[in-house]
Amino acid sequence: MNNPPEMQTPAPLLELRNVQRSYLQGTVKLDVLNNASLSVRAGEMKALVGPSGSGKSTFLNIAGLLERPDAGEVLIDGVDAGKLGRGKRGNLRRSHIGFVFQFHRLLPEFSALENVMIPQMLNGLDRNEAATRAEQLLAMVGLQARADHRPGLLSGGEQQRVAIARSVANAPRVLLADEPTGNLDPDTAKDVFHHLATITRTTGTAALVVTHNQQLALNMDSILTISDGKIISIG
Ligand code: ADP
After folding, report:
1. Residue 63 counted as domain residue
2. What is the Cα–Cα distance from 84 to 223, expressed in whole angstroms?
3. Does the beta carbon of 2 sit less than 6 angstroms from any atom of ligand 1?
């Protein structure tokens, strides 16, 4: 008998099944990903750790629909991205996936508020709606008092918190972060991570975070690494 709906575990928002990716280096074929699988559910945060060159960025790029796998499936909120053409794939990425990078990539000529408003306006929201949501998101990362500041007037940690607010501006279902605290001192890294975790839990996003910071990894729901091209759990 099937469980009643409320008893069922929700479907993952991000799922990769048996993903394969090889690169040719000279005449040598390098199997970076070989049947790599993973799923992340709403509100869950998973850490992806491992040495440089182990395939973390490749995996994140494939999960973020920036790169196609040679084989295997990538499902975003249940939608098989491999079955979509280029346009629809781009739409799915823009509407469902948020990115946070090691370097904030904020627009220097615009205020913190505008940096969070712009992706929403590009997505069709009017100025007032975008401003209201941007204010709420900046408040969630503790930056309501800094909304009018340009990035150059903010500290490294504050810039990264604006980048986190921007990454969820269009209410993505999946959040992918590549070394989001890699450029910060340990205390600031902890603070930025705290805000990233709060945003993930309160918005019910599924987050996959590449990090070298063991302490932060330990604060996530599980720790994964890539071994022989496969995703394995190590904590
Ligand atoms: P990580 O993010 O863990 O440092 P990457 O995903 O960047 O690892 O790289 C994994 C391996 O794949 C490395 O050996 C890298 O040199 C190789 N690689 C990545 N991208 C390419 C590419 N476009 N062409 C050839 N080799 C690549």
Report:
1. yes
2. 31
3. no
What is the CA(30)–ligand 1 centre distance, in A? Answer: 9
Q: Ligand 1 mean position to 55 CA, how many Å?
A: 6
Which tokens in the block code for residue 207? 């987050």
Q: What is the pLDDT of residues 32-56, one digit of tens each?
A: 999 999 999 999 999 999 999 999 9
**Is residue 160, in this structure, part of any structural domain at all?**
yes
Is 213 in contact with 181 (CB distance < 8 Å)? yes
Given a cut of 80, whether residue 30 has pLDDT beyond it is yes
Q: 146-164: per-residue pLDDT in tens? A: 999 999 999 999 999 999 9
Q: What is the pTM of this model?
A: 0.90
Look at the chain and report how many structural domains it folds into. Answer: 1
| Cβ of residue 54 lying under 6 Å from some atom of ligand 1 | yes
Residue identified by tokens 């099937």 is: 2
In a domain, 98, yes or no: yes
Domain membership flag for residue 126: yes
CATH code at position 153: 3.40.50.300
